[in-house]
Specification:
The protein has three helices and six strands, in the order βββαβββαα. The chain is α+β, with helices and mostly antiparallel strands and about 150 residues long. The longest helix is centred in the C-terminal third of the chain and has 16 residues.
Length: about 150
């Protein structure tokens, strides 16, 4: 992390893939009552907390899901926030909105190829999901191995 990122809000940003009732691979989307736009789950990194620990904590706090595995994907810098982006392997499928989360829903990965049509998503979320889909396409065998190991 460069020195200019130290003054930005540090956020652990969580990609969680789950299957919907149709068996489609989906990403979990979160909407907080206080926010205008929806995002992938995540939140601020506490002072002295490792970003990966923050990601696992935020997953539990916001969705009531446990974590079986975590993998650092990449960093993303927006105007005010430095995102530490992780792929989290959820322990189970039964999520529910908790803490300050108003609603949670599953967005099929097929929708990630037309993110500009999703006005409910924040700009940073669209960028993070686009980058994740690129990572996923390039690392399919690595992703499958992570899922088997978890």
């Amino acid at each position: 992390m460069s020195n200019k990122n130290v003054n930005k809000k540090q956020r652990s940003t969580c990609i969680i893939e789950l299957k919907n009732e149709l068996g489609q691979d989906c990403v979990l989307i979160s909407k907080q009552a206080s926010d205008r736009f929806a995002m992938v789950p995540g939140g601020g990194v506490d002072q002295g907390e490792a970003p990966i620990v923050s990601a696992i904590r935020e997953l539990k706090e916001e969705t009531d899901l446990g974590c079986k595995g975590a993998f650092k994907l990449f960093d993303h810098e927006s105007e005010f926030t430095f995102h530490h982006v992780f792929l989290l392997i959820a322990d189970g499928q039964d999520f529910k909105p908790c803490d300050d989360v108003e609603s949670l829903w599953l967005m099929p990965l097929s929708e990630c190829h037309k993110l500009d049509e999703h006005s409910e998503l924040s700009r940073s979320t669209k960028i993070v999901l686009k980058r994740y889909m690129e990572w996923r396409a390039q690392h399919q065998s690595q992703l499958e191995l992570l899922l088997v190991m978890a």
